[in-house]
Each structure stands twice: as structure tokens, then as C-alpha cells.
Amino acid sequence: MNRIVTSLLDRFxxxxxxxxxxxxxxxxxxxxxxxxDLGCGDGELTRKIAAKIGSGHICGIDYSTENVEQAKARGxxxxxxxxxxxxxxxxxxxxxxxxxxxxxxxxxxxxTLPKEVYRMLKPGGYTVISTxxxxxxxxxxxxxxxxxxxxxxxxxxxxxxxxxxxLKKRTDPWPTHRxxxxxxxxxALLVWHGLTVEAVKGSGLYPFPSAAARLIxxxxxxxxxxxxxxxxxxxxxxxxxxx
Length: 243
Fold this sequence. Notes:
By secondary structure, the protein is an alpha/beta fold. The protein has a single domain (about 15-135, about 180-235), classed as 3-Layer(aba) Sandwich (Rossmann fold). The chain has helices at about 1-10, 15-25, 45-55, 65-75, 110-120, 135-145, 185-190, 210-220; strands at about 35-40, 55-60, 75-80, 95-100, 120-130, 160, 165-170, 195-205, 225-235. The chain has a seven-stranded mixed sheet, sandwiched between helices. β6 and β7 (about 165-170) form a beta hairpin. The longest helix is centred in the first third of the chain and has 11 residues, at about 15-25. Mean pLDDT is about 85; it is low at about 240-243.
């Protein structure tokens, strides 16, 4: 059974590019916007987002020195920082758009990042934040069989995939998934920290291929492999309203 499930997950690797496409789709064109990507990696997705926005004002933060150098080579003003212990090296209200893609689930303190996002966003600015989905179909299926869900973790030292017979020592320099979110949970976290949710997307639906998943997801996004929330900081004219 393990081999069957592993084969299914490997066959549907298309879910990740599907998720990237959905993330990029939530950004608005604004050539004057200043963009910050938290956990920007090597900057490949950051450049796609910047192209959608049409902006050349691009900053990034990442923990990996190698990623920082690669992002800089792509023309991104990238700084090295630990997002789990940080106050970002940028002024208050200095960005129009902030992205955090597949970052929040790695943090032990999941309040610091949205607090910093709120601090750095200009009034009227917005953020797009995405994570794996705790309620994804593959996680539900694993739990029904009594297995550890694929998108959760028990240790920073090793990975456990489906059962303890598949231990894998970790070599990544960053922690594995510390917390897991549903669509409601991620939205609630952002609202708690003063942001207003404008749009949500679900990407990928195991075991369906891309074309079928896109047809089903509008009615089943809460079971998607990845979830993405777009949320806005209220403009100065609405600053007195209750979040």
C-alpha cells in the first residue's frame, strides 16, 4: 500500500506548478508597487510575481545564504534573515505588496510573520500568503489509514513519510513543517492581525490530474493540496474600522 500511495504522490507532481500559477494570479498589475517576498528562495517565483505586477522594485528575505546569492543574481535586493526570530530590516509601511509562499508552516512562532507583514505594508497594500493544506485529501486519506499525513512533521532531524518504515534523515538548513493550516485557520490568523481577507484559492487536488482538479476545486478548495489567501491592510480612510 505504501508503494501505491508514494507512486500516486510522485505522479501528481504537477500540483506544485499549479499552485505557483494560482499564487501569481492573485497579484495586481501596478508598475509603481514595491514588492517584498518573504522566504523568496532563489528568486525564481519572485521574478514571476514581479512580472505579473510589472514592477522593478523587488526585495526579498531568505534564510539560506545560497538562496540569497541566487536571488541577488536575479536582480532582487535580497537580505539574509531568520523569519522565525526576526524584525525585518525594512521601515514601517514601506511596501505595497508582500508575498510569503510556503514559509509560514516552517515557523514555530506563526504570529511574528503576519505582525511584520502588517507593519511593513502601506495602508491599502496587500499580502498573498500560501501554505500546504492540513485538510488536503492526501492528509485525510493518510489519517484514515493511521499514517502520519505527508504535509506534517514530527521532527526537525528526520522526515517520516507515511509510516515509520520510510525514515529519511534531513539535510535541509531550515526547519521542516512546524504548524499546519486549514483554509479557515490561515484566514483567521491574518484577520486576527488586522488584515482583511479578499480572496482564497486552493491548488491541486490529489489524486486528480490538473484539468480535473481545476474543475472540481471551485467547490472543494478546502481540500486542496495548497491553500493561498490574499489579504489587505485597510487604507488610511478606513483605519478606524474594526478588523
